Amino acid sequence: MTWELLLWLLALGALLALLVQLVRLVRADGDLTLLWAEWQGRRPEWELTDMVVWVTGASSGIGEELAYQLSKLGVSLVLSARRVDELERVKRRCLENGNLKGKDILVLPLDLTNRSTHEAATKMALEEFGKIDILINNGGRSQRSLFVDTSLDVYKEIMELNYLGTVSLTKCVLPHMIERKQGKIVTVNSIMGIGSAPLATGYSASKHALQGFFNGLRTELTDYPGIVISNICPGPVQSNIVKNAFTEDITKRMDVIGDQSYKMATSRCARLILVTMANDLKEVWISDQPYLLIAYLWQYMPTWAWWLAGKVGKRRIENFKSGLDADSSYMIALKKKYK
């Protein structure tokens, strides 16, 4: 075999490998590292059993679904949110459909914005189970309002809840993990923590803040390789996130919710988060197309991402000003076109 033929074969192999990755990306609902871990990596059923997992924002959406899936793995659960009645509902369903008994689930009401209570809540969780293996920072709210119309009180509340509340609870739990030299801190961030979009300036800012904080914290914990920091960046997921979103005024609720069927199923998102935890992945992107592709554009081709954000963002604002749901009708059409 001549050197020239060998070089041609190597080039052809590289081209085929690239084409395979492109096909995988088109069909993907998570970044390629995450999907490889799901296929060839460690299984949550093997890695997460007998652990104590604290889930914030556990009364609905991703947090609720995580509780259900974790309850089938034989973990002990600490469920936190502000609404006690909803937490009790989630606990009952965990007991009905999971592999847990009543003593395995602690309902621990928690307001992330009331930071003075976080130390006591952490002590209660430790007194109940003796340890905290995994903290899942999932609590938070989104936003649907234009910056020029929005009170600064809204931005203050978003940062208090999404950012400072999460940082505060992490600060309470981390010393316990450092003492044990092991643990996992999993933060449900957002694709909006990578890029941005109109009508969510405050939400995006809070998610960028979380991204920067936990990436920095990871570098401070290099002496504790058993402590894993994982940033989860989901795209649109079926939940009450739009219904509960901040508007231009603290007291105003969302008027138009719209069709949420185009979003990823909550169960699929939760499963991929469990895969992330089982494989100690540092950052993952979880989203259907075309949102996943947009995340790759933000990361590797930001100029193209800015151009696309301008096109999509203009339509988003037009829908919002017309009293329509900002996303659903346009995104459903875009997703069908993409397929």
UniProtKB/TrEMBL annotation:
Gene3D superfamilies: NAD(P)-binding Rossmann-like Domain. Keywords: Oxidoreductase. It comes from the Eukaryota. Pfam families: adh_short (PF00106). InterPro entries: NAD(P)-bd_dom_sf, Sc_DH/Rdtase_CS, SDR_fam, SDR_family_member_7. Belongs to the short-chain dehydrogenases/reductases (SDR) family. This is Dehydrogenase/reductase SDR family member 7 isoform X2. It comes from Erinaceus europaeus.
